[in-house]
Write a structure and sequence with these properties.
It is a single chain. The protein is of the alpha/beta class and 468 residues long. The protein is 50% helix and 12% strand. The chain has 22 helices and eleven strands. It has an eight-stranded parallel beta sheet. The protein has a three-stranded antiparallel beta sheet with strand order 3-2-4. The structure holds zinc ion. The site of zinc ion has 5 residues, from strand 1.
Length: 468
Amino acid sequence: MRRIALLLLLPVLALCAPVATPASASEPGAAQALRSARGDTARLRAFLWAMPKGGDLHNHLSGAVYAESMVRWGAEGGVCVALVTFTASAGPCLPGQRPVADALTDNVLYNQLLAAWSMKGFRDGLESGHDHFFASFDKFGATTSGRIGDELAEVSSRAAAQNEQYLETLITPRFGDVSGLAQGLEWTDDLVEMRRRVLTAGILDVVPRASADLDAVIARQRALLRCDTPTADAACAMPVRFDVQGLRAFPKATVFAQMVLGFELMAADPRWVGFNLVQPEDGPVALGDYAAQMRMLGFLRSVYPKGHLTLHAGELTRGIAPPADLRFHIRAAVEVAKAERIGHGVDVTLESDPIGLLRELARRHVLVEVPLTSNRQILGVWGRAHPIGLYRRYGVPIALATDDEGVSRTDMTQQYEAAVTEQGFGYRALKAMAIDSLRYSFLSDGDRALALRVQRAAFARFEARYPG
Ligand SMILES: [Zn+2]
């Protein structure tokens, strides 16, 4: 009965009814300052850097780190790198490999590693931005082994320094445990039975291990940021929560087991607040199993009343995937999987009945996480071709996000700059997005209210600099 009552409550809690953006007496002055900085890159950057920006809701922790840190960690860890592909692997080095440490004194190698492990200096040519971007993760992965706390320190510190009030970052908990456990499981489309098999195989044993991992990650972050000392980094006071990443390019049993772990984690540990599917949406398994994966999530959403869902959906455009695959991903994520937020949503106009879909997203209060730099680099979609303005016109809530700011060599402020210079957004629109990024965060009700209060005070201080 209690579960039924919670289920009935869920849609009400999940909906954030739109409210008018609160205006302060100084808001017109800030809006005027932004208008006058529009054509002045340096002034615009300074204005937007200091502006409160709410939460980064779409931030893959491993891709948010800059390659310079990876070189440093790889050197410290004795990691090696293959000379042709620049793929890192654990030492000792084999023929055809060099120690990453060499890059600290060999400028040519250093620049080659930065270019291979990020979008630094990338030019579309034989390799597309999409392919270079996704390939980088397989290349630098070995340098970040055991460094999640270090990653969190770097990324949270950068967020707080830019006046962000919240970080919701994506990490993949205990994938080795889950894939090992799933390997012995036979797939069945009977999801009740499939969940029973995953539980019987021992998925619940992974929950305390994943929570213990998080304890260590946060302890390391806090030590690096000197939290609890007089010189604490500003990020020590900024709330951080974690979304569970499930890898979507694996067999159904492995993907489903990751989903079950995700929902169990959210039920057991309040630091895990959301679930998401990652890896290229246009990969062969991701395309072939897309509808099945949405059904799995829809089923688990009905089983677990706790836990939120945001999904990469529509990180596609013409030429990236066959037309039939461009017609339904966003709608299925919302209607079948019951996602509360969508990541990217770039191909919305290529879906069946796009106007009906836009109205549906607005009616359901589904927020779209928009990483403008990532969309430009991976999909080649930017400027007037990007649907962010369309979402706004139809009243779909939107929030700017960084996606993989390290690989992309960007930050949150640059997303705001692009929203102004490429999309023509003004101050009120930016402020509405910054507020929505907190209102649609997966923070608990109490923590969300607190974050909004902190942001309101930050806006008051910021706008007071620009008396009308
Ligand atoms: Zn993403």
